[in-house]
Structures are given as C-alpha cells and as structure tokens.
Design a protein that fits this description.
This protein has 401 residues and is α+β, with helices and mostly antiparallel strands. It has helices at 2-16, 54-65, 101-122, 147-157, 162-169, 183-200, 217-223, 239-249, 267-273, 300-310, 313-322, 328-336, 342-362, 369-381; strands at residues 29-39, 68-69, 75-76, 82-85, 91-94, 124-127, 172-177, 206-207, 210-211, 260-261, 264-265, 280-282, 286-292. A hairpin with a 2-residue loop joins strand 10 (260-261) and strand 11 (264-265). It is globular. The chain starts with a helix and ends in a 20-residue tail after the last helix.
C-alpha cells in the first residue's frame, strides 16, 4: 500500500538519514574493533564458556580494572568502551562517541590494553586480523545461543558456507561517522570509497592455514552472501528511495510480521533493518563496514582516511566528482586483488592523499599530530609501495595490546 510505503520512507529519512536533525552538532567519531582471542601456544580460538573461556577472562578484567557488567551482559570499561561478543566468540570493543580521532583511539587503546594485560597472564592473545587464519570451518560453531543468530545462520546457509565463515571467523573494524549538514553528500562519498577502504587495509589473505588468493578473505565472504542485503546501495541519486527499495527487497528471515501498523513502522521493521549489511549502513550515522580488523598501532590510519574524506567538504566534493559509484565487480576486485590491481591502487593512493589533505584542513583540533603521523606513516610504508597488512612483511602489531 502507498500509505505503508510513505511511512517506511519517512522513517528511513528521519531515523536513518537524520534529515530532520536541525542544527548539526560538531562532527564526532566512533569505532568498533573485533578481535580474535586465541591460545598463545596453539593458536586455537578460545571458547566463550569454560574454566579458561573468554567470559571468565572478561570477568577477571572487570575485577582487575574496575569494569562493570550490565544486566544484558555488556561489559563497560571506565573509558566508556563497551565490550561484547560476536557469534563465533570474537571480542568486540565499541568506543563511545568521541570528539576527536585521537580520543577515540586512546579510548580503544585503554580497553584493549586491559584485555591484553589479563590475557597475557592467561596465555591468551587478541589477534587483530580480518579472518581466522588457521581454524578449519568444520571445527567452528556458533558460540552465542541467540535466536537472532540462529535465524541468520539458517538463512545465510542457503547461499553456501560464506555465512558461517562471516559469523564465526571474521573480524572487522567499523568506523562510525556523523551525517552532518549534508547527509546525502556524505552518504554518496562514503559508498564511493568503500572498495578503496577494503583494499587499503586488507588484512586477511589466509584461512585454514593457507593462502586464499584474496587480499581480504573477510570481504570476500560478503561478496558470496545474500545479494539482496549486501553491497553498496545506490547509485545515490535519491538515497532514501533507494534504501527503501533495498530494504523491501531483502527477504525478512527473523519474523513474518507486518512492517507497519496504523500508518507507523513496527518493531518488526526496525529488526528487519538490522539484518541488512551494506558496505555503508545508515543508522542515524554512517557505519563504514568495509575494513578488516587492523592492529592497534595502525587503527588511526583508517580513521584519518575516513574523516579526511568525509568530514572535509572539499574532499567530499572531490570524491563525488572523481570516483564512480561501486558495483559488485568493483567490490570484488578490491577484495581479491586489492592494491595489486593497478586501477584500484591508483584510485586508493589518490584517495589516501586526498584524505591527508582533508585531515590537514580539519586541523589538529579534530585530528591530532599522533593520529596524522600514523596515517602518513601507513601511507608511506604500505600504500605508496602497493602493500597492505596482508603482505608478508606486514606482521608487525598483529596482536592487540
């Protein structure tokens, strides 16, 4: 019905793209880093449960560093970070919204250092990699007994093993950015840089003990999943209409309940939106989902790139003018070849240079000297040489803390 479509469209415009936000606040930054907990001696992934499991590890971290746990089982660090588990037992650290890139990195470091300190005593390492490089898929299972994850697991199994790999073995770095005064401009630019972020920070070339042939095996899984809920939603001419069409086309696997009632979106609609996984997801802010987990020493680099390209108006305009809206072939090339592809390498290097210029215009009040130097160092050591974190000589800082 047209009334239902209008209600859903209005919800996407208001809640996901914040078109009625009024006066824009100063831009902020948030991030979510997923880490793989493994036994130092064997490389075996540490399970959630058990005497030496990660649930007990986090309990000990809480006792040692004065963390708290809420009724939902979410751990809260004094710096404001929230620590949770992913379906395969990965540990996710989510920073609070920060006023600067440096503050976001410092907060992440504080929480990660606490985990690593206790992990060291327990013989547990926290690996910052995009994909478990050792464990056969057949040796994994869902470690969170949650109805949502069970339903997702069943649905994605229809498309092959990529869903199980993604849920149980992958780790990402998600960068969260404000929509600002020009939400659609930032949305369009964010989608255009998505494959370049994958290529620049690829960190998952190995799986099950061997080379996969992909620079980012994590990103590869998303290319093999349900195409109705992945990819870049575009081409960006009318983001609200396009995202509504994207959402309505995706098969609702959680429940078969009406999305509107009395002309208003229902909770079922909100839950359905949470099962969509585009490269850039609007959530009242922009969630950039194209980056492999990276070692803590380099975390500032993708943050500077994202902010320099999307928070500086001149950079946004340059990206929208210079880069095409990506399709599945572009996303696949970035994941498979990365910077080995001459075209991807040229575009990625240009984007990184543009980001550094944008970061300088944003100034030290938002991107401090330490974060900027990290990004510049990454560009010189990796991007300018056509290398990424999956390169054989890029093993420095593979563990958090």
């Amino acid at each position: 019905m047209e009334t239902d479509r209008h209600a859903l469209r209005a919800d996407i415009a208001r809640r996901l793209f914040r078109t009625d936000a009024g006066v824009a606040l100063p831009d902020r930054m948030g991030l979510e880093l997923e880490l793989l907990p493994v036994e130092r001696e064997t490389g075996r992934v540490v399970p959630l449960e058990g005497e030496d499991g990660t649930k007990r590890l986090l309990a000990q971290v809480g006792l040692t560093f004065n963390w708290t746990v809420d009724p939902l089982g979410i751990h809260h660090a004094p710096c404001g970070c929230r620590v949770t588990f992913e379906p395969g037992g990965q540990i996710e650290i989510s920073t609070p919204t920060a006023p600067t890139v440096d503050r976001a990195v410092d907060c992440l470091r504080a929480a990660t250092d606490a985990l690593a300190t206790v992990g060291e005593r327990w013989g547990i390492a926290l690996e910052a990699v995009g994909f478990d490089p050792r464990t056969p898929l057949s040796h994994t299972r869902l470690q969170l007994d949650d109805p949502r994850y069970r339903a997702m697991d069943r649905h994605l199994a229809r498309f092959g093993p990529a869903g199980a790999r993604m849920m149980r073995q992958s780790c990402a770095l998600q960068v969260n950015l404000d929509l600002g005064r020009d939400p659609f401009g930032r949305w369009q630019a964010a989608n255009r840089i998505a494959p370049l972020l994958t290529a620049l920070f690829a960190n998952s070339a190995r799986a099950e003990g061997q080379e996969t042939g992909w620079r980012s095996w994590r990103a590869a899984q998303w290319r093999m999943l349900d195409p109705s809920r992945t990819g870049c939603v575009g081409p960006g001419h009318d983001p609200v209409r396009e995202y509504l069409a994207f959402a309505r086309a995706a098969d609702p696997f959680l429940e078969a309940t009406a999305w509107t009632e009395a002309g208003r979106p229902t909770a079922a609609w909100e839950r359905h939106l949470s099962t969509l996984f585009p490269e850039v997801r609007p959530r009242g802010y922009l969630e950039l989902r194209s980056i492999d987990a990276v070692p803590l020493e380099w975390v500032a680099a993708p943050l500077v790139v994202a902010a320099g390209l999307l928070y500086d108006p001149r950079s946004v305009a340059r990206v929208r003018d210079a880069l095409p809206f990506p399709d599945e072939a572009d996303l696949g090339a970035a994941a498979r070849e990365g910077l080995k592809d001459d075209i991807v390498r040229a575009m990625a290097a240009w984007a990184f240079e543009c980001a550094l210029e944008g970061a300088e215009r944003l100034g030290a009040a938002f991107i401090g000297g330490a974060a900027f130097r990290t990004a510049l160092d990454y560009y010189e050591r990796f991007t300018a040489e056509g290398r990424d974190l999956s390169s054989p000589t890029a093993s420095v800082g593979a563990q958090a803390g």
